[in-house]
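Researcher: Please predict.
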Amino acid sequence: MTADQAASPPAEQLLGLAARRQDGVLADPGRRHEIHLRAGRITHVLVGGVRPGPGPGPDRAAGTAAAALATREAFVDGVRELLDADPGAAARWAPKRRSPLDTAGVRLNVPGVLAEVGRRRAVLERLAGLVTADAPLARRPELPVAAVRITPRQWALLALAEEGVTPRELAGPLGDSVFRTVCRCHELLRLGLLDAPSATAPAPGAALFLASSD
C-alpha cells in the first residue's frame, strides 16, 4: 500500500472499523460503492450499485471453491474502486441492526485486503502507459506469428474484444475483476493479439505475472 493510500480517510476508517469488529456498511460519498462488514471483516461489496462476483465466466462452472475465489477477487477490486473514487474524502459509515450480507462464506481480513489493494494500484500505475481500465482496445484481425499458445481465459477475452471495447466493459461478461482483465489485456497486447491505438507499444519481454493466474 502506498503512503498516500495508507493515510486516506476511507482506508483509516476501514482499519478502525476492523479493529473494533464493527457490523455495518461503509459507502463512498456518492453511495456508488459499498463495503459491508460483519465483525470487522468484509462480507459483501457493491461497485456502482452492482454486486461483483463470479458472472457467466469460467469460475461459475468450476465449482464452489473457484466461485469463492472469484468473489474474493471481485471484492478486493471493489474495495480498490471505493478507495480510488475520492481518496481524500471520508466515506459514510452506517451501522446496521441486522447482519450485513454474507456472500459464499467470504469474510476478508481488512489489513490483508488493503495490502493487496496497494499492490494492485502499483501494478496498474506501471501499466498505465500501455493499457488502463478505460482504454479502448481492438482485436487484431490476423495472428502476428504462425502459432500463439494462450489460455482459455485469454481466448474468451479475445472473442469479446470488438473494436473500441475497454477492459472495464470486458470484466463483467468474463466474470472477472477489472484488475485481472487489465492485466490479461496487457498480456495479449504484448503477444500482438490486441491493439490499443492510444498506447505505447509494450516492451518486449515485459511479462506480467498474476497471483493465482491461469
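Model: The chain is about 40% helix and 10% strand.
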